[in-house]
């Protein structure tokens, strides 16, 4: 699915940047890895959601980059709500 129409980037290309060693990265970093930058910005929310969803799916609770919010009183983890993905127009 094309998520950035300005740069014609697919979700697979964005996710492939995660294979470069980082378990989680910012949208801007993913674009830089692909040799471009966001132009109009309409895709940024979708790209961020895509990267966050991939991180959550690959995360082990308790790791250094754990996306779970630690409950301040019990120390138990609460899951993060992942926004739905939307394709760029």
Structure in words:
By secondary structure, the protein is an alpha+beta fold. It has one domain (2-78). It contains three helices and four strands; from the N terminus they run E-E-H-H-H-E-E. A hairpin with a 6-residue loop joins strand 3 and strand 4 (77-78). It is globular. The strands form two sheets. Strands 1-2 form a two-stranded antiparallel ribbon. Strands 3-4 form a two-stranded antiparallel sheet.
Taking all Cα atoms into account, the compactness measure Rg is 14 Å
Percentage beta strand:
5-15%
Broad shape: globular
- Low-pLDDT sequence parts: 69-83
Number of structural units classed as domains: 1
**Average pLDDT figure:** 75
What structural class do you assign from the helix and strand content? alpha+beta
SS element count, helices: 3
Major beta sheet summary: 2 strands, antiparallel
Total strands: 4
Distance between the termini: 11 Å
Pattern of helices and strands: EEHHHEE
Q: Strand order of the main beta sheet, please?
A: 1-2
Kindly state the percentage of residues in helix: 25-40%
């Amino acid at each position: 699915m094309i998520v950035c129409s300005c740069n014609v980037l697919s979700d697979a290309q964005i996710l492939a940047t995660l294979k470069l060693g980082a378990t989680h990265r910012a949208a801007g970093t993913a674009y830089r890895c692909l040799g471009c930058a966001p132009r109009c910005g309409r895709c940024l929310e979708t790209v961020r959601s895509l990267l966050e969803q991939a991180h959550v799916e690959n995360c082990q609770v308790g790791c250094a980059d754990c996306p779970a919010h630690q409950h301040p009183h019990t120390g138990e983890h609460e899951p993060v709500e992942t926004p739905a993905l939307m394709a760029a127009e």
